[in-house]
């Protein structure tokens, strides 16, 4: 029996396919300038033209009127570190010294459960304020950091993916587990949290240099034993890091081949960065349905390099956008689109706004093998959505008033928007953020 029916009026946008590979016979998106989103029991019941759907509502149904604003699926951030919230915008000469100087000391504090809980609450507030309703989240080596995160997200009813970092070498003693303890703690956490409510677990070796071959072997065995879990790690972010991997794993064909040799390339595997890949690496990603989390603000901040959209598309790699806070410099997926656009231009390609919004919604859901659950307004999908305000700032208001197409409207939002453009955020049909107005 349907209960808790809700209806929302506004301009509706959601995606059906990747705009880069669509045509008139297979449209990439649905756009209803005067639309209606109907939600029942936390799931999408219908989405379409207001004039058509309004007549189907039961008498006396309250319609929440967001006319003049855009309703779209919530953003999905496929690579972010919640423990690094307090060290965002920390200066360093590169990735490896940044880890030593800021990251590891900051993560040490998460042995304190109360501290972890406090940061988790602030982190989730920031995500929701920026319109992000799902994220793939790195915790720390401490199991209690995972418990704190999932407890906070469960209380808010959010669809979140997270995992304990596995790290048994090339790191400070105070952050080091062992191959066996890391696997044991991970399995305990999988059994405690995976598919509990809206929580999903990600097996999380930090990156190949901080795991012994034994730890990677055990991580791969867990991935095989629990095939519906996620895997998340880093690959080919930085040239110095890639050189280090060649020294540590001289028998591997490439950095990503290290993970492949331990059975860690499969659907629901999310690889952060993927900058310095070769053609065979990209081919293996496509063959195994492993996905790339593109982190433009982090890559520019740390000087790591520029993601090659064109070659990734040629290979058929699953793509998504990610903030990578705290190497990333903003929780906002709009700001992330801004930098992704510039990265693409510097590599000689072009990212239309429609493609950027796809990568932050349905593209991410597809990368995570969660299409039909999150990422668009398909009937039965979880009703995670945001209300985007094209008039959020004087400059946005002035620019969007002169827009002559959906592409121009979205491009202005991506290049000029930030958290202020998110008027409200809904998770499973429940409002979890509303923008404060003065």
As a percent range, the share of helical residues equals 25-40%
Could you give the distance between the termini?
Answer: 41 Å
Question: Total strand count, please?
Answer: 16
Given as residue ranges, the uncertain stretches (5+ residues, pLDDT < 50) are none
Q: Which band does the percent of strand residues land in?
A: 15-25%
C-alpha-based Rg, rounded: 21 Å
Number of helices in the DSSP assignment: 16
Q: Given the C-alpha coordinates, what overall shape results?
A: globular
**How confident is the prediction overall: mean pLDDT?**
96
The major β-sheet equals: 9 strands, parallel
What structural class results from the helix and strand content?
alpha/beta
Question: Summarize this, please?
Answer:
By secondary structure, this protein is an alpha/beta fold.
Walk me through the topology.
Blueprint: E1 6-15, E2 29-40, E3 43-49, H1 50-53, E4 63-73, E5 75-81, H2 95-108, H3 113-129, E6 132-138, H4 143-156, E7 160-163, E8 165-166, H5 179-193, E9 199-205, H6 213-225, E10 230-235, H7 239-248, H8 255-261, E11 269-273, H9 279-288, E12 291-294, H10 296-301, H11 309-315, E13 318-321, H12 333-346, H13 353-359, H14 362-367, E14 385-388, H15 394-401, H16 406-416, E15 422-427, E16 430-434
Parallel strand pairs: 1-4, 5-6, 6-7, 7-9, 8-9, 9-10, 10-11, 11-12, 12-13
Antiparallel strand pairs: 1-2, 2-3, 4-14, 14-15, 15-16
Written description of the protein model:
The chain is α/β, with parallel strands linked by helices and 438 residues long. The model has no long low-confidence stretch (mean pLDDT 96). It has 16 helices and 16 strands. Strand 2 and strand 3 form a beta hairpin. The strands form 2 sheets. Strands 5, 6, 7, 8, 9, 10, 11, 12 and 13 form a 9-stranded parallel sheet that branches.
């Amino acid at each position: 029996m349907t209960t808790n029916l809700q209806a929302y009026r506004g301009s509706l946008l959601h995606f059906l396919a990747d705009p880069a590979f669509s045509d008139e016979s297979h449209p990439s998106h649905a756009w209803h300038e005067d639309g209606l989103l109907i939600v029942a029991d936390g799931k999408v019941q219908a989405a379409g033209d207001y004039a058509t759907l309004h007549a189907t509502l039961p008498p006396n149904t309250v319609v929440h009127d967001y006319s003049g604003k855009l309703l779209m699926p919530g953003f999905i951030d496929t690579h972010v570190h919640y423990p690094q919230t307090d060290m965002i915008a920390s200066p360093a000469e590169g990735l490896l010294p940044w880890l030593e100087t800021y990251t590891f000391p900051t993560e040490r504090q998460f042995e304190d459960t109360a501290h972890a809980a406090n940061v988790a609450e602030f982190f989730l507030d920031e995500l929701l304020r920026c319109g992000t309703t799902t994220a793939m989240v790195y915790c720390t080596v401490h199991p209690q950091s995972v418990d704190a995160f999932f407890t906070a997200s469960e209380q808010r009813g959010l669809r979140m993916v997270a995992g304990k970092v596995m790290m048994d070498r090339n790191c400070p003693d105070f952050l080091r587990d062992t191959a066996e303890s890391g696997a044991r703690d991970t399995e305990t956490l999988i059994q405690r949290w995976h598919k509990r409510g809206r929580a999903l677990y990600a097996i999380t070796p930090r990156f190949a240099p901080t795991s012994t071959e034994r730890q990677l072997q055990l991580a791969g065995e867990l991935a095989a034993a629990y095939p519906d879990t996620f895997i998340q790690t880093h690959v080919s972010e930085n040239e110095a890091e890639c050189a280090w991997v060649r020294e540590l794993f001289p028998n591997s064909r490439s950095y990503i081949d290290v993970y492949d040799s331990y059975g860690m390339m499969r659907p629901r595997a999310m690889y952060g960065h993927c900058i310095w890949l070769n053609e065979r690496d990209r081919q293996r990603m496509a063959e195994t349905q492993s996905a790339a989390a593109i982190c433009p603000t982090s890559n520019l901040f740390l000087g790591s390099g520029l993601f090659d959209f064109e070659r990734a598309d040629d290979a058929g790699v699953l793509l998504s956008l990610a903030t990578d806070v705290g190497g990333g410099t903003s929780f906002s997926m709009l700001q992330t689109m801004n930098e992704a656009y510039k990265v693409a231009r510097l590599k000689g390609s072009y990212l239309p706004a429609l493609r950027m919004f796809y990568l932050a919604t349905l593209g991410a859901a597809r990368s995570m093998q969660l299409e039909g659950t999150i990422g668009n307004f398909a009937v039965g999908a979880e009703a995670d959505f945001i209300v985007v305000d094209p008039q959020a700032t004087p400059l946005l208001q002035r620019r969007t008033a002169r827009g002559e197409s959906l592409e121009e409207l979205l491009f202005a939002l991506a290049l000029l928007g930030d958290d202020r453009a998110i008027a409200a955020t809904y998770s499973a049909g429940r409002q979890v953020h509303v923008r404060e107005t003065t």
